Amino acid sequence: MLNNVKVVLVGTSHSGNIGSAARAMKVMGLNNMVLVAPGCEVDGQAIALAAGASDIALNATVVETLEDAVKDCALVVGSSARSRTLEWPMLEPRECGEKCAAEGQQSQVAIVFGRERTGLTNDELQLCHYHVCIPANPEYSSLNLAMAVQTIAYEIRVAFLEQQKQNFVPQAEGEYPRHEELEMFFEHLEKVMIDTQFISADQPNKVMSKLRRLFNRARPEQQELNTLRGVLTAVEKKMGSR
Ligand code: SAH
Known about the structure:
Layout: E1 5-10, H1 15-27, E2 32-36, H2 44-50, H3 54-58, E3 61-63, H4 66-70, E4 75-79, E5 90-91, H5 93-103, E6 109-113, H6 122-125, E7 130-132, H7 145-165, H8 179-195, H9 205-218, H10 222-240
Parallel strand pairs: 1-2, 1-6, 2-3, 4-6, 4-7, 5-7
Helix pairs in contact: 1-2, 1-7, 5-7, 8-10
Bound molecules: S-adenosyl-L-homocysteine.
S-adenosyl-L-homocysteine (SAH) binds at residues 79-82, 113-114, 116-120, 133-134, 136, 141-143, 145, 148.
């Protein structure tokens, strides 16, 4: 199950943080690191701070965009010190650990961490199903990146050990679509809304952002998403035949 949990670091600028994050992961049994457009190399500093966990940093997958990092994930959780202007479904670190441990039984899940100085952008946060916030001192709430990774990784481990104790049998839950399938649905939805003139092509963002939030909250299962795609296709067919 822990092999299904990816730790995604977006735009990390200090290589030492990559090393420390690798160490934070390995002590908790996580080994799958993904670097999105890193601003530094996995250099000597990273290796030094990783101590015995340099394999994780050296084997990290490097990709260009967050979308690439999470396209095969059925659950994506963004870690953020601030709730920002977006009102998004929130998880406590403990709930986040439990969800990752449960869903990691059957599919890939990702925990996403932001840049040291600026965190995650609103667009990146909108690619996540949930946000997790470590309830730190409100007057000084921003943890060092690797320490945030440590805190969340610990919660995943605790939940995983709990599962093992209970000899956990995963519930027969509905299957969730992969991130890229959800993105294809959003593209399709946007196209139909533009074609039907529900929104104008030059300003789709506001409505799309609201609808993204709705569908992320609802988390449609694979079957449900297929139905929604079917509805959109039916609308397109009807318009075409007018
Ligand atoms: N100034 C940035 C903080 C970046 S810290 C900001 O305001 O967003 C680097 C990363 O560590 C963050 O993007 C987040 O993923 C994680 N992090 C730091 N403190 C956190 C907290 N209290 N809760 C959740 N994640 C946190």
